[in-house]
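FAQ

Q: What does a record look like?
A: Structure on top, sequence underneath. For example:
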């Protein structure tokens, strides 16, 4: 709650100081915070180490980009079995993007979750790379160059073209996920999910359908990451294969580890820390990762539960 209050007040000093670029940075933090928190749901609570989480980000983002592209050209994306015209209407595009991301998570999760450990990591990476090369090969939709949007999706009662209103829209989406996730992990479902991480065989002996619970968590995480992809595409008004590459999945994983696994709020702190350091270190040197690397190592070695753990202990 304190974190959300601070994020809600963040635009005030930014506007007073006239530093509009900080509002863009804050919006990116919220979006990546949502993506990282969704990964934490399956990693921190379910013990599912995925290196392909950016695939859901890409599915959501490309749904926005492709429908907008078809809308610009005035043609339908699909004509059979259902007509699907190109559109920039967020009320149509956003639920469809989340549904496609959840559907993709259900299909890939049904296969991936039958494996464990390194095999699970590699198969999620393989699925993500398949999605990466699939969208890279779509020459009619920009191919490796991606799709540039002429504007953001339209939503009733909101001016999504306003950076301030879009910031609060992203904050609302993040708050809904954190609130819902907080209740979820403290429910019976959440306790079973954490039990799967600790000793899944024992739960199976007790008659618990662990696979079904793990798959549902994976689908929910995929849907939230798909929503983050929708917001990211609208925020930058661009969609490209780079948002699906395995390095993007690695960045999201680092945000979770840096902020603190199994906390939901910690990954948001991790996203804020990583993106802020990247923004300011890059001003002084192109080799900013040389300085970022030792910082990450120190946090992982000495910060139990990451940055969230350090704040929690000090409080």
């Amino acid at each position: 709650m304190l974190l959300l209050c601070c994020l809600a007040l963040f635009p005030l000093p930014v506007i007073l100081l006239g530093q509009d670029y900080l509002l863009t940075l804050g919006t990116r933090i919220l979006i990546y915070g949502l993506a990282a928190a969704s990964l934490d749901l399956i990693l921190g609570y379910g013990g599912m180490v995925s290196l392909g989480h950016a695939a859901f980000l890409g599915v959501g983002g490309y749904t926005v980009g492709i429908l907008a592209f078809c809308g610009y050209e005035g043609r339908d994306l699909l004509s059979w079995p259902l007509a699907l015209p190109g559109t920039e209407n967020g009320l149509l595009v956003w639920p469809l993007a989340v549904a496609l991301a959840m559907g993709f998570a259900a299909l890939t999760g049904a296969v991936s979750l039958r494996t464990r450990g390194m095999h699970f990591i590699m198969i999620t990476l393989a699925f993500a790379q398949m999605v990466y090369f699939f969208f890279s090969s779509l020459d009619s939709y920009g191919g490796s160059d991606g799709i540039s949007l002429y504007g953001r999706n339209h939503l009733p009662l909101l001016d999504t073209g306003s950076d301030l209103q879009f910031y609060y829209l992203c904050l609302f989406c993040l708050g809904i996920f954190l609130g819902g996730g907080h209740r979820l992990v403290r429910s019976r479902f959440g306790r079973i999910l954490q039990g799967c991480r600790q000793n899944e065989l024992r739960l199976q002996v007790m008659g618990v359908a662990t696979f079904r619970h793990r798959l549902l968590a994976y689908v929910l995480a995929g849907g939230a990451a798909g929503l983050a992809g929708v917001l990211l595409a609208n925020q930058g008004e661009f969609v490209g294969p780079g948002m699906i590459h395995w390095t993007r999945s690695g960045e999201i994983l680092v945000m979770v580890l840096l902020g603190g696994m199994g906390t939901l709020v910690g990954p948001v702190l991790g996203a804020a820390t990583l993106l802020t350091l990247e923004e300011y270190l890059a001003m002084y040197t192109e080799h900013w990762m040389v300085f970022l690397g030792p910082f990450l190592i120190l946090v992982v070695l000495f910060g139990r539960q990451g940055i969230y753990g350090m704040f929690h202990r000090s409080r």
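Q: Is there anything notable about this one?
A: The longest strand covers residues 76-78.
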